[in-house]
Amino acid sequence: FSDLKKMKEKTQWKDFLENICVLKWIWSFLLLGPVCIGLMGYLMFTSLWLLPVLYLIWQLTDWQTPERGGRRSAFVRNWTVWEHVRDYFPMKLVKTAELNPNKNYILGCHPHGVLSIGAFISFSTEACGFKDLFPGVCSYLCTLGGLFKIPLYREYAMATGCCPVSKPSLEHLLSKSGKGNAVVIVIGGAAESLLSLPGVNTVVMKQRKGFVRMALESGADLVPVYSYGENNIFRQVIFPEGSVSQRLQQLFKKAMGFAPCLFVGERWFWMPYHCPVTTVVGSPIAVPKRPSPTQEDVDHYHLLYMEALAKLFSEHKVACGLSESHNLRIV
């Protein structure tokens, strides 16, 4: 009986740790940026005013670092916190083909979901074993460039291996930083986040071709990635088409680059649903290096990518908990 009691207590403790770690990640994602800005502003009007002044001076001298590969930290990427977040859902990273460490890659990750937790845990931490699955390959999750202008927050983002999803940043990683770099881009972005609903498998990419052009210019192979279950983590409030709320949401997205999603979780409002998330990395699509690709080149490889993504989804949907009747919708 004492052994059973210990096992039960351990399970309760593990559940507690998972909940706290997931909340920590969500609060960091949503609130850490504003908190960092508020802290720096507050310190400016205290006896510690010299600290933010010195930091901001240093930040100006370090301004280009995020677009030059950032400043990743193996220590941060291996935090035990990420393992607890992984176990909460749980999350899994699946490899379907080798990635040659002597090449560079653009991994297109779908769908965006509300917070892209699957992409973050799979590619900005080692909780799902990316380094072991793809030895010699270094993953960089690319996200909004504005985040890297926020004091203090930028250090946290860079430590996880995140970089801006800007052309200078991508050019550096794919053409000026050696081989074995896997740039991860959540192609659908803010538009796709607004389509995030349980049971829905819709990706926005018919008009998203910039990543293909970048692949051609740098000679980086394209790799489709799909995170099954990402859209099931939260329940999002969808505003009626044409409503004031929907128009304000679209205006905010246009101005800020991301959409203010109104969502709820399983409990405590923000706690996500316990839904398995399986991120499947597909086979590379060989892309030739063409410094000045034509529109026909871009359209050709964009079509190949969409076909590969649809095939990847179809091949793994049943194993990842979907029925045969589920189809991927590309808009």
Automatic annotation (TrEMBL):
Membrane-spanning ranges: 21-45
Protein name (Swiss-Prot/TrEMBL): Acyltransferase
PANTHER family: DIACYLGLYCEROL O-ACYLTRANSFERASE, DIACYLGLYCEROL O-ACYLTRANSFERASE 2-LIKE PROTEIN 6
Subcellular locations according to the entry: Endoplasmic reticulum membrane
Keywords: Acyltransferase, Endoplasmic reticulum, Lipid biosynthesis, Lipid metabolism, Membrane, Transferase, Transmembrane, Transmembrane helix
Listed EC numbers: 2.3.1.-
Taxonomy, superkingdom: Eukaryota
One GO BP: triglyceride biosynthetic process
Organism from which the protein derives: Esox lucius
A Gene Ontology cellular-component term: endoplasmic reticulum membrane
Membrane topology: Multi-pass membrane protein
